[in-house]
């Protein structure tokens, strides 16, 4: 039985070229980038080259990139770092009800420290209202954190419009772009974002490495203290092998960006067409347009999500009921609750399929057939 992995929004397999790059670095470049001898200088060169590639990928400068252990640390550093740096100007934060838990739980911690948080609602497609954001803005608002693309339903927020709204406000604008990076083109200057979080393992890079973009001139209180790495913003010896692997993953993603988007969109159409042909009763959660091409969240009316996932797993299909960080939880997805309410059937009947490296058209055709068979069996 061929196993089909369609949970790339949770994590993605390492690209073969990334593995080769990392192995080479681990075998040959063990120096500490902070050392001044030749071994250290070679390691530093690898880090600097990677930083340049990452900066160019979002139209930033090298000094605006801070390496982190991943998206969660980047989100934490952005929110706590800004709040601590600008607390004399206010203690009000604005975010959304559908953020990743790396943002939501950080905001909960900040509330315990005396900050006030406004959680913006979303409509039934998962989009916030810019008008609601405008109404929520106050003179003491110091940070607005709105995720770029949702990890569960794929909805893309109006980031450019929000950036324009905040351009002349004191609030710093942070966006969690973990699911968007490597899928959509990003220009931080065009979007007018001040901080942006990214993780490597969503784009076929290694786990345990990411970055936070921080616009030049913005103050940030560090969360980790020690050495003077990352311009004194994030202490700790750099993970050179992971950073080199991250660079390779970004170069590949940038080259294949347009091709992948078209490919993933064709997979969505294939699944929809097959379900229609088989008369499967389903609903797409989120928008059909203005959504991330690799994420497809589907509700199957009358189907229990846990039974569905077990049957899919037995058939060799790896999918998800939502965020990997809440997998195994009996609680319904906070994203779907925000979109449809606590009483909606959809919060108990929805499955997320997310596409990526090594998925083929033949696999997706087989996926559609397997899902249709299971849905019909469970309905009986």
Question: Could you characterize the architecture of this molecule?
Answer:
The model has no long low-confidence stretch (mean pLDDT 95). Helix content is 42%, strand content 14%. The longest helix has 38 residues, at 240-277. The two termini are 25 Å apart. It folds into two domains: 4-12 and 257-379, Aspartate Aminotransferase, domain 1 (Alpha-Beta Complex); 16-251, Aspartate Aminotransferase, domain 2. It has helices spanning 16-28, 38-57, 71-86, 101-112, 130-136, 159-166, 188-191, 229-232, 240-277, 305-314, 334-340, 361-379; strands at 4-5, 65-68, 92-96, 116-120, 141-145, 172-176, 195-199, 210-214, 282-285, 295-300, 317-318, 350-354. It is of the alpha/beta class. The protein is built from twelve helices and twelve strands. The strands form three sheets. It has a seven-stranded mixed beta sheet with strand order 2-8-7-6-5-3-4, with helices on both faces. The chain has a three-stranded antiparallel beta sheet with strand order 9-10-12. It is an enzyme of class 2 (transferase). It comes from Bacillus aquiflavi. It catalyses: (sulfur carrier)-H + L-cysteine = (sulfur carrier)-SH + L-alanine. Belongs to the class-V pyridoxal-phosphate-dependent aminotransferase family. NifS/IscS subfamily. GO terms for molecular function: cysteine desulfurase activity; iron-sulfur cluster binding; metal ion binding.
